[in-house]
Write a structure and sequence with these properties.
- The structure holds three protein chains of three kinds.
- By secondary structure, chain A is α/β, with parallel strands linked by helices.
- Chain A is 31% helix and 11% strand.
- In chain A, strands 2-1-3-4-5 form a five-stranded parallel sheet.
- Chain A starts with a strand and ends in a 10-residue tail after the last helix.
- Chain B is α/β, with parallel strands linked by helices.
- In chain B, the strands form three sheets. A seven-stranded mixed sheet of chain B has the order 10-9-8-7-11-12-15, with helices on both faces. A six-stranded antiparallel sheet of chain B has the order 4-3-6-1-2-5.
- In chain B, a hairpin with a 3-residue loop joins strand 3 and strand 4.
- The termini of chain B are far apart.
- The chains are: A alpha/beta, B alpha/beta, C alpha+beta.
- Chains in contact: A-B, A-C, B-C.
- Bound molecules: iron/sulfur cluster (5 copies) and FE2/S2 (inorganic) cluster (FES).
- FE2/S2 (inorganic) cluster binds next to helix 7 of chain B.
Chain lengths: 247, 280, 344
């Protein structure tokens, strides 16, 4: 059987997820290349294709109506579409602007009205085309991406845990951020990343989004009572990566 | 390694290879496998027991044995395609292998059925695990009293074991009734929920042993009928489903209050579980 | 079996000699907390720990453990015990180990746990510092710590090693031990007695009374709703518990996409889908859908369901769950007391 063809595409994003992909290191990437053929990857190679692809990996949010056609073309060419990274899965950080109107001035000052900076609402890729799989995270979890691809190669689906990050954090015996006077949102963030952030001594910011039944009132309570947040900060805190999932 | 040590370190999670001898597709979503252990060892089981059946790389799921230990040489399972593992299993064909562990769990208490009238009420795919008991009773017919089987499915396309049913309908050994919730143009039989079958047959002795296997919604209505017939709850056996992972009483996933479905069950008397809030 | 004595000045040499011969796992400092780790040298050992983040069960039942490995054709088990000394286990964790020993042995022996358990010498040690959330002196007094091979008590100037099994006796060969005097044995006894009654949290009821009342409260929805209102279903209270032993099993392929492994991972009954099933018919059913019922299940398990098997409650009073629960609702003292006070 010919190796499945994989292509990478990027939309509104920092391309950090593509960089993260190159972080696999040579050994793992070479192993993977025994099984797939990468036909398009701006971050690491120059050739581009227009033919059929098996797996399209899309990074970034859908923010301009003009991108819809490009996305539809990708969908048309690809057997499977994987949205990877928070921007592509939920709108990610980009979606913060959906709830604000003065962000352009704030970020670009006097240049705010330049035409190339005009963009619409930041939406997940799934707002434009059908997405088959999502690899969450900011940046995406590369191990999870490998699992998704590995499962696809075997004709099946990777199952993302439905429990929160604390499960994985505790399994690796990390000191809880709250026990060091810090804050954390691992109690409501969707696991699957292996809880790297608390292990490195920084809070979980829920970059993978929330679990389905996130207890947000309890989160606010903990952020205020244990991490000393003001109510406003406690309420706002959880929006960074989940702006699109909330009203 | 000496045999003693090998036995001492037996890994309860190590599956054995089973070869697929025959397959059939009774419905669009179900696949019926006839299997044989690759090492030639017979599988020593009781009707109602389960196997953990899997494909390496995909996982394992608990499946009730669908054949009787009285039929030697091979054993049957029926798998409905519902998820990751069942899809992988159902992509296997004759000559391929499945990896199985078992038999596991507590099957039907044959001693309490023997010498008694037996009624089996099976709904949907619940016929598969009870088929083991049906075959067993038919193979040892004189050890049991009157034998009735009620079988209900959503519609005629969902009915399983066509050949068996032809046989059962014709047989004098079994008082067989079937029904579908919704008929189609081909259907000439009974239409209605499974409890309507209680009125299709002559009166049941209150001492009858009853086996129920099917979707949880079915239980309540069937139990109501049985109460009216005066059948004691100690004599009602239910075959429960849980998210059994390990099948050996360790992983905890199958807990029903303080019971473990995989080792205390899957067959329970209704008396034993009626008080358990999480049972049905 | 008897009592040995080791001068303080010889202690480090004893531990280093053990480390040279075997894998030695003991409490070590991790910033402001303690964790069990393999020791590289005696100075890493911190017998003055109060409690570790994870209980010592991780030595026999690791958070992730391969149970089967597969290649293209063949499969194999992966039980590979390593000769280990687990040095420095407080009595409440000795109880916890004894409980998981029983649970992995009952009915069907699980050698994925038992093999490493049998290859391990468990050395208990006296409690030199008390965790603020502990209540081990007021819970399950009827369950005696057992199953350990030796008990080490630190005194001023040295330590007493009580050897309880041949595995424990074998330790003597690694250090300059002599027989302990009656005074030293008495001093050790007193040292261990003196910590009892020192925990700041207390359970004021007998195990039987608790078991009966908790079971009786099963249907008190209002009570459980209130107790569990802030629950995140994060499972931390399970994950850190010495007597929790539930696990999930997952298969994965290696990078070569041909071989792979079937691995078990610690699981937690507080998490949302723990009791969710896809029925044979394809319907989804979650037998403990609400977080209140999962929260209740854990308390049933810790106070009542397992008592008959274990001879007492499946809670050792280590206080880890109380510490781990960020919203501070998992504390058994608080929850059990609230239940006991209903209607009284
Ligand atoms: S550090 Fe965060 S993720 Fe880890 S246990 Fe604490 S709250 Fe949970
Ligand atoms: S720990 Fe939290 S912030 Fe870090 S990768 Fe995981 S979900 Fe994202
Ligand atoms: S329930 Fe809590 S206090 Fe009791 S043994 Fe478990 S972690 Fe320790
Ligand atoms: S309390 Fe929950 S996780 Fe712990 S052993 Fe019992 S069922 Fe398993
Ligand atoms: S009780 Fe606390 S630790 Fe346990 S699941 Fe709920 S929030 Fe998490
Ligand atoms: S299926 Fe694992 S304990 Fe029952």
């Amino acid at each position: 059987m010919a190796k499945p063809k994989i292509a990478f595409f990027d939309f509104a994003s920092c391309e950090g997820c593509q960089i993260e992909f190159t972080n696999f290191g040579d050994a793992a990437t070479l192993e993977l290349l025994n099984h797939v053929e990468i036909v398009e990857f701006r971050e690491a190679m120059t050739e581009t294709t227009t033919g059929r692809i098996d797996i399209a990996l899309i990074e970034g949010s859908f923010t301009r109506e003009a991108d819809r056609v490009r996305l539809q073309q990708i969908r048309h060419r690809a057997k499977y579409v994987i949205a990877y990274g928070a921007c592509a899965c939920t709108g990610g950080i980009n979606a913060l602007k959906n709830h604000q109107d003065d962000f352009a001035e704030y970020v670009y000052g006097g240049d705010a009205r330049m035409p190339h900076l005009r963009s619409g609402t930041a939406q997940p890729i799934s707002a434009a085309i059908k997405v088959d799989y999502e690899v969450k995270g900011c940046p995406m979890s590369k191990d999870e991406l490998l699992l998704v691809i590995s499962n696809l190669l075997h004709g099946t689906e990777h199952v993302i845990p439905t429990y929160p990050v604390c499960v994985e954090c505790k399994r690796r015996e990390t000191i809880c951020r709250y026990d060091e006077g810090d804050h954390c949102m691992g109690q409501v963030a969707r696991a699957g990343c292996g809880a790297p952030c608390p292990a490195d001594g920084i809070p979980c910011e829920a970059c993978r989004g929330f679990v389905d039944d996130a207890n947000l009132p309890a989160l606010e309570k903990v952020l205020m009572e244990r991490a000393g947040f003001s109510q406003k900060r406690a309420v706002g805190k959880s929006r960074m990566f989940t702006a699109n999932l909330r009203s | 390694m000496s045999d003693d040590l090998r036995a001492a370190h037996e890994n309860i999670f190590l599956p054995r290879e089973a070869r697929i001898l025959h397959t059939a597709r009774p419905t669009a979503s179900e696949k019926h496998f006839t299997l044989q252990m690759a090492d030639g060892e017979p599988l020593d089981y009781v009707p109602g027991q389960i196997l953990e059946v899997g494909v390496m790389g995909y996982g394992e799921i608990p499946i009730g044995l669908a054949s009787s230990p009285t039929r030697k040489g091979s054993f049957d399972i029926v798998v409905r395609t519902v998820g990751r593992v069942s899809t992988a299993i159902n992509s296997k064909e004759v000559g391929d292998s499945l990896w199985v562990r078992g038999p596991l769990g507590h099957g039907f208490d044959l001693d309490s059925l023997k010498g008694q009238d037996v009624l089996i009420v099976a709904g949907g795919i619940g016929l598969c695990p009870t088929r083991s008991l049906i075959q067993y009773i038919l193979d040892r017919r004189d050890e049991f009293g009157r034998f009735l089987l009620f079988y209900g499915a959503r519609d005629p396309l969902q009915l399983l074991f066509t050949e068996d049913r032809v046989e059962w309908r014709a047989s004098k050994e079994i008082d067989y009734h079937e029904t579908v919730d919704r008929a189609d143009v081909t259907w000439t039989g009974n239409v209605g929920v499974i409890t309507t079958l209680f009125h299709k047959t002559t009166h049941l002795d209150p001492n009858t042993r009853v086996v129920i296997c099917g979707p949880p919604v079915m239980f309540e209505f069937v139990i109501k009928e049985l109460d009216q017939l005066g059948i004691a709850r100690e004599n009602i056996f239910v075959d429960l489903e849980r998210r059994m992972k390990c099948g050996v009483g360790k992983c905890g996933h199958c807990q029903i209050n303080d019971k473990y479905c995989c080792i205390d069950g899957p067959v329970f008397t209704f008396a034993a579980i009626q008080e358990l809030e999480e049972a049905i | 079996m008897g009592y040995l004595y080791l001068e303080e000045k010889d202690f480090a040499a004893f531990v280093d000699a053990l480390i040279a011969a075997k894998r030695v796992v003991g409490p070590t400092a991790k910033r402001n907390k303690f964790v069990y780790e393999q020791l590289a040298s005696a100075d890493e050992l911190r017998l003055d720990f109060d409690v570790t983040i994870l209980p010592p069960k991780k030595v026999f039942f690791p958070p992730a453990q391969d149970i089967v490995r597969f290649g293209e054709q063949a499969i194999e088990g992966c039980i590979a015990p390593v000769d280990t000394v687990l040095l420095g286990v407080h009595f409440y964790d000795v109880k916890g180990i004894d409980m998981t020993d029983y649970l992995f042995r009952e009915r069907k022996e699980d050698w994925n746990y038992l093999a490493q358990r049998e290859a391990t010498t468990v050395v208990a040690s006296n409690i030199q510092a008390i965790s603020p959330r502990a209540f081990w002196d007021s819970v399950g007094a009827e369950v005696k710590p057992k199953g350990h091979d030796a008990f080490l008590t630190k005194l001023a100037g040295g330590c007493v090693l009580e050897t309880l099994t041949p595995k424990g006796e074998a330790l003597a060969a690694f250090g300059a031990f002599r027989d302990a005097t009656a005074d030293e044995i008495n001093a050790a006894q007193q040292t261990n007695d003196s910590v009892m009654g020192q925990c700041s949290e207390k359970l004021g009821y007998t195990s039987e009374a608790i078991a009966a009342k908790v079971r009786d409260s099963f249907d008190n929805e209002e009570l459980w709703d209130e107790l569990a209102m802030d629950c995140f279903s994060c499972g931390s209270c399970n994950t850190v518990c010495p007597t929790c032993y539930c696990f999930d099993v997952k298969d994965a392929w290696n990078l070569n996409q041909v071989s792979g492994s079937r691995t078990r991972y610690w699981d937690a009954c507080l998490t949302r889908e723990f009791a969710a099933v896809t029925m044979a018919g394809g319907d989804k059913e979650n037998f403990r859908e609400r977080h209140q019922s999962r929260f209740r299940h854990r308390f049933m398990r810790k106070t009542a369901y397992l008592n008959e098997k274990l001879g007492g409650p499946a809670c050792t009073g280590c206080g880890r769950c109380s510490q781990a629960c960020t919203v501070n609702i998992a504390d058994p003292v608080r929850v059990i007391t609230a239940i006991m006070e209903v209607g009284s």
